[in-house]
């Protein structure tokens, strides 16, 4: 039975506080668009992984379905590009701004500018470390610490099988996500917390592969040259795990057997590798945030109170569960 973590926080929405949505048109209908439509500016991280692609599609499709005019930018993984995009949305006087902060730090100034311009901001997917939570309406995204804990807990529960070389130690190499990104920091933290329960499990090497397939492959190649007795790879996302599979196979080893692999995301290619036995366990991270984002945007502009944190529903998959789930997966 897949571990079901229904984390959706569904605080009851209080009555409208009468906040006028900025950009109300003369006839009182909302939204800055010339046809009274809500205009949303979305500053996306980039296109680094299968997860990101699915996330972008979900946001674009949901805006379309909700009748929200979407201005969309891809920052190619650079914070300065996201900040520039947010500033341009402020200039264009959009009704609401949403973005997925590529890293946790360095957002206060631009969020202050949005606040001063009276434009509400919704964080999606990744968090910021700003102390001042008045700078954004809510954070819609996963509990990354829990994702790391679920990955670590599977390893604790399967330590005997995971000690592939039978030396009594479960040696783990870790492929970290983008340095400074909330999912990378928190998944690493959660994983370390969970494996502390079993002293025979140790992370012997850890390096960022920047959430990309190529990054995962290159770092795994270097680990295979520098580390003795690798039993397990913990990759912070499927794409780096898939890159690690390429490196492991190039070294003449069998991924999933000679070296166990645990990843996070559960995008299609990851789930296929899991079903094929090349990955051993995947913790899901749901990229389909579009529908909830558009609902939250409407609620904010209707002046309704919304929860300050909305956690997405997620589960985990073993190889058997992946075989079962694959046919119905949307991404
Ligand atoms: C997690 C998201 C991460 C994914 C990666 O919510 O920010 O970024 O796990 C993606 O695949 O690149
Ligand atoms: Zn071992």
From TrEMBL:
The UniProt entry, under InterPro entries, shows:
Peripla_BP_I, SBP_2_dom
The record's listing under Pfam families reads: Peripla_BP_4 (PF13407)
- Give the UniProt keywords, A-Z: Signal, Sugar transport, Transport
- Its Gene Ontology molecular function terms? carbohydrate binding
Q: Which residues form the signal peptide?
A: 1-20
Primary localization class, coarse: other
GO cellular component term of the entry, any: cell envelope
Which compartment or compartments is the protein found in?
A: Cell envelope
- Span of domain Periplasmic binding protein: 46-304
Asked if the record carries the keyword Transcription regulation, the reply is no
Say which domain of life the source belongs to.
Bacteria
Question: What PANTHER family does its record include?
Answer: D-ALLOSE-BINDING PERIPLASMIC PROTEIN-RELATED (PTHR46847), GALACTOFURANOSE-BINDING PROTEIN YTFQ (PTHR46847:SF3)
User: What protein family does this chain belong to?
Assistant: Belongs to the bacterial solute-binding protein 2 family.
> What protein is this chain from?
Simple sugar transport system substrate-binding protein
Species, as recorded? Nocardioides thalensis
